[in-house]
């Protein structure tokens, strides 16, 4: 049999309290900031000091649940009869569990319905923190769930409905929120509801059937890959721009609304000229002269430029994300072995699995030089060996405003941030450049997926590969030539079967037959020459001048085949005369060929 009661708790005796005795018992007269004074009983604490006894304003129900465990549940009722009514419902549900009418999980779900959703959120965030998720990711989840609860008016689990979420998503669509952003909010709520199902707070996920928005048709941020020429310019500007900023020339502000005679010589009429790639080194020389009395600043600016260029190069040649690169320490580098690599800790990686990132030899050499030249503060040196860097020292100081710095570097290098399709370049676009360059270099898709550390190959090939930079025309040139005149094709095949090569006919037909297919026959000849000589397609092999390679194959194979017919004196052999006669008879205008 359960019971209802009000719990009591104690607090220290206030200094302003007045102790009085009523019927042999001591009370404390306490006057709150608002209201009348109250008489509260006094008890003795564990250390012998006097404490005031307070009583809870609401009743608590105490009973045995279906598993025969003693439970205490706050009823939230100030009236005793109402509290006993709630106690009766709890005891009836415990009886249903004992008689196996409902399961303990269903009973646990019912217990959580009255708890405020903010309390569930707090337990959910503690669960994610215990899993070791990234702090930024947890903070984003908190902010999104709080916004959803406020704007959808979710106060308890029983109020979580798919209709409320669908209505909110429709409003955000009207307010021009991107499809990807709407999907992120939906996913946060779906993930929370799944956790509630796992912990028996909900029986089913109410948001499981809420459809995702089509993010492919509503992509707000489309990145493009950078070409090799653009990357070279970017690294050059990044290397010297920190120092060149101090050597920028002054230029007069061009105000079209003010006539030249009305202009007043004042400081606001002048500004610093923009840096360009052509004037970069001149600005560097002017900066050296300007800062000649401050060599420490010059050295610091040069180190900053070297670091920035090396940050860009590392991002492009490893595919690391900005946050992952910022987490790399000196101790995670292995540069001395035959295969240099970086050990990426699981806690710093996006998928929380941990990876070994291989390094190209030139990048490994650059990192070695960087670590040997960068001065080591005393706080980052090992106490036993001052010449050795502390392995916990960050490899790079990645600035928080790297996006703004990249924008200035792109402007100085003359690289358009956005292309004609509206795709832009940002820090993460360097990872897109990494994936695109892998595909352009002929790397197998599965290998590229492993290098990008993607879960699916579709993400590597479709999202992180820019088809604009791929050699699609070269791929088309590798396809076999298809003749549009099947009659001539059949004849050439029959002549090959009889041992008569069509190399000579491809040169004779344009002279004897006024046909417009001259260029077609030359293309077919090139393809056949490449096939017979087993020469790989120059577009596939990466030859810089495919035209010269084709001409070389033609010059050797054509001479060998075209003049393979036996010659007698100055006259061609009989087979050659017959061949010429056949083509002449089939020429347009000859009635024998009709």
Q: Descriptors for this entry?
A:
22 helices, elongated, 13 strands, hpI Integrase, Chain A, 47% helix, 3-stranded antiparallel sheet, 5-stranded antiparallel sheet, alpha+beta, 594 residues, disordered C terminus
Structure description:
- The chain has 594 residues and is an alpha+beta fold.
- It folds into four domains: 1-102, no CATH class; 117-198; 223-254 and 270-470, hpI Integrase, Chain A, CATH 1.10.443.10; 486-593, no CATH class.
- Helices cover 47% and strands 10% of the residues.
- The protein contains 22 helices and 13 strands.
- It has helices at residues 80-98, 104-112, 117-130, 135-152, 162-174, 179-198, 228-244, 280-290, 295-318, 322-327, 361-373, 402-413, 429-440, 445-452, 457-463, 472-477, 486-497, 503-512, 518-533, 538-541, 546-562, 574-585; strands at 3-5, 8-12, 18-22, 25-30, 38-44, 50-55, 60-64, 70-74, 250-252, 270-272, 333-334, 341-344, 355-358.
- The strands form four sheets. The chain has a five-stranded antiparallel β-sheet, with no helix packed on it.
- Strand 3 and strand 4 form a beta hairpin.
- Helix 3 packs antiparallel against helix 4 (135-152).
- It is elongated and about 105 Å long.
- It starts with a strand and ends in a 9-residue tail after the last helix.
- The model is unreliable at 378-386 and 501-594 (pLDDT under 50).
């Amino acid at each position: 049999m359960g019971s209802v009661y009000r719990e009591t708790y104690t607090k220290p005796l206030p200094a302003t309290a007045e102790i009085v005795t009523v019927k042999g018992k001591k009370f404390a007269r306490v006057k709150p900031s608002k209201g009348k004074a109250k008489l509260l009983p006094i008890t003795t604490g564990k250390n012998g000091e006097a404490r005031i006894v307070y009583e809870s304003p609401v009743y608590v129900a105490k009973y045995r649940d279906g598993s025969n465990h003693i439970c205490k549940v706050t009823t939230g009722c100030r009236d005793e009869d109402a509290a006993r009514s709630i106690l009766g419902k709890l005891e009836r549900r415990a009886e249903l569990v004992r008689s196996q009418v409902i399961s303990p999980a269903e009973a646990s779900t019912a217990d959580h319905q009255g708890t405020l959703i903010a309390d569930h959120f707090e337990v959910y965030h503690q669960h994610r923190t215990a899993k070791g998720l990234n702090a930024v990711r947890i903070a984003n989840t908190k902010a999104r769930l709080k916004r959803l609860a406020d704007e959808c008016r979710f106060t308890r689990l029983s109020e979580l409905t798919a209709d409320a979420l669908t209505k909110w998503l429709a409003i955000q669509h009207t307010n021009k929120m991107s499809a990807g952003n709407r999907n992120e909010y939906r996913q946060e709520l779906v993930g929370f509801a799944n956790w509630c199902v796992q912990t028996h707070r909900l029986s089913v996920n109410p948001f499981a059937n809420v459809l995702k928005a089509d993010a492919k048709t509503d992509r707000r941020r489309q990145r493009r890959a950078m070409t090799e020429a653009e990357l070279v310019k970017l690294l050059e500007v990044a290397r010297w721009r920190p120092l060149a900023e101090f050597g920028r020339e002054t230029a007069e502000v061009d105000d079209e609304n003010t006539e030249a005679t009305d202009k007043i010589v004042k400081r606001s009429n002048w500004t610093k000229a923009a840096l360009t790639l052509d004037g970069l080194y001149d600005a560097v020389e002017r900066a050296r002269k300007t800062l000649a009395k401050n060599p420490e600043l010059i050295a610091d600016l040069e180190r900053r430029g070297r670091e920035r260029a090396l940050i860009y190069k590392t991002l492009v040649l490893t595919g690391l994300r900005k946050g992952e690169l910022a987490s790399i320490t000196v101790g995670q580098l292995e540069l001395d072995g035959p295969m240099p690599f970086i050990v990426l800790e699981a806690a710093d990686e996006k998928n929380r699995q941990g990876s070994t990132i291989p390094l190209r030899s030139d990048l490994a050499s650059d990192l070695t030089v960087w670590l040997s030249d960068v001065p080591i503060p005393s706080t980052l040196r090992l106490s036993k060996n001052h010449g050795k860097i502390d392995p916990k020292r960050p490899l790079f100081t990645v600035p928080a405003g790297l996006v703004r710095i990249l924008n200035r570097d792109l402007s100085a290098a003359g690289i358009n941030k956005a292309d004609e399709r509206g795709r832009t370049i940002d820090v993460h676009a360097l990872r897109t450049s990494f994936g695109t360059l892998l595909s352009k270099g002929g790397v197998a898709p599965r290998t590229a997926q492993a290098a990008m550390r993607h879960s699916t190959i579709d993400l590597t090939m479709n999202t992180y590969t820019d088809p604009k930079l791929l050699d699609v025309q070269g791929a088309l040139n590798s396809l076999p030539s298809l003749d549009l005149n099947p009659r001539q094709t059949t004849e050439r095949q029959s002549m090959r079967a009889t041992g008569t090569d069509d190399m000579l006919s491809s040169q004779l037909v344009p002279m004897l037959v006024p046909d417009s297919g001259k260029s077609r026959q030359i293309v077919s000849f090139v393809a056949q020459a490449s096939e017979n000589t087993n020469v790989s397609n120059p577009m596939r092999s990466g030859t810089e001048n495919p035209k010269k390679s084709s001409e070389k194959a033609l010059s050797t194979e054509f001479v060998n085949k075209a003049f393979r017919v036996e010659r007698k004196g100055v006259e061609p052999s009989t087979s050659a005369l017959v061949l010429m006669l056949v083509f002449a008879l089939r020429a347009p205008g000859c009635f024998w060929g009709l």
